[in-house]
């Protein structure tokens, strides 16, 4: 097999780390992770989970510590499914590739190679579409800011294909949304939620994004005028994000994207919103924390002002414990003193190791979102907004005339109450996630 990754030649000595001889019973036992990336006591992760963490950790050379013949104990199809679920199949492929041909059986390696090739083609398609959208909006004088997706991959990993991307996320000023929406529709994008102009204006006060389908895929484009739905009660100043933006190169084109400090806050909020359900979100955090010029004092002060210190703490604790991310001494001191963050991080880490997923439309989920806020006022604000903030489900359930739009809050309350009495957890959609 020819080597194509830049790291492969630099680390070619890994190929000799796996011996073709028969392994002893002690060698074929599930290997133990180094302590800095070991799962929490009480979890029972398999060999595949351990291998995945070691391969994508901040110190992937730790995989050298595994006993010879470990590849014989791995369920390779299960590992691929696990990597796909966590959005890290390309990162895992890179790590295994750098170890040489004997790191995995031929059929297992070919499966990872095919998956990586598919991701490369998807990323090239997304990059081309992103450039097309940005060029069109630039010509109309509309300022937007891409983040996540291929932009994040190229910025953090230096290669747009090392991070699995499924769509394009563009931040836009709410005042520019009607023109932006019209422009992308002329490029062949179709909005998922069809609203009248009056309904769209009302929806913008409670929602945060419009999603668009494309012949190339569903939900391919998201236009966001806020970073989260209003009910999460994190009042991020989007205009400040635009002012602090930095210029990066994506597929050879210059584009603005949030600063590293803003990204750390934004991505932590995004991961928390989805209960840290995918390792790729923690990989992104670990990559950002590597930056020597990161302004941790500003990050800490912003997190405190927004009331998301606990969310930041849990995110950093997970990145540190699962991936070995290096956290500087300043935020580390605060982490060590926050017992609630440790309790939550432990529970989430155990759930991740055991494949537990979260239903983001359940009451348990909303209770967790409240526990993640350190200020009582934010918890009550979250509950109040959750109760009365209409989501797409309310707008689709009944069509009200413009003068009655305020009644969508009553519709929301009624649907929530009905779910409570039925005792069902998945019959109503939350405001857009």
Helices and strands in order:
Elements: H1 6-10, H2 25-28, H3 47-56, H4 76-85, H5 89-99, H6 106-139, E1 144-147, H7 149-157, E2 168-172, H8 177-186, E3 190-191, H9 197-204, E4 209-214, E5 217-224, H10 238-243, E6 246-250, E7 253-257, H11 260-273, H12 279-289, H13 296-306, H14 309-323, H15 329-337, H16 339-353, H17 363-371, H18 376-388, H19 392-397, H20 408-422
Parallel strand pairs: 2-5
Antiparallel strand pairs: 1-2, 3-4, 4-5, 6-7
Helix pairs in contact: 3-4, 5-6, 11-12, 11-13, 12-14, 14-16, 17-18
Short structural summary:
By secondary structure, this protein is an alpha+beta fold.
Overview of the structural elements:
The chain is built from 20 helices and 7 strands. It is an alpha+beta fold and about 425 residues long. It folds into 4 domains: about 15-105, no CATH class; about 140-260, Beta Polymerase, domain 2, CATH 3.30.460.40; about 260-360, no CATH class; about 365-420, no CATH class. The strands form 2 sheets. The chain has a 5-stranded mixed sheet. A two-stranded antiparallel sheet has the order 6-7. β4 (about 210-215) and β5 (about 215-225) form a beta hairpin. α5 crosses α6 (about 105-140) and α11 runs antiparallel to α12. The longest helix has about 35 residues, at about 105-140. The two termini are about 45 Å apart. Mean pLDDT is about 80; it is low at about 1-45 and about 425-433.
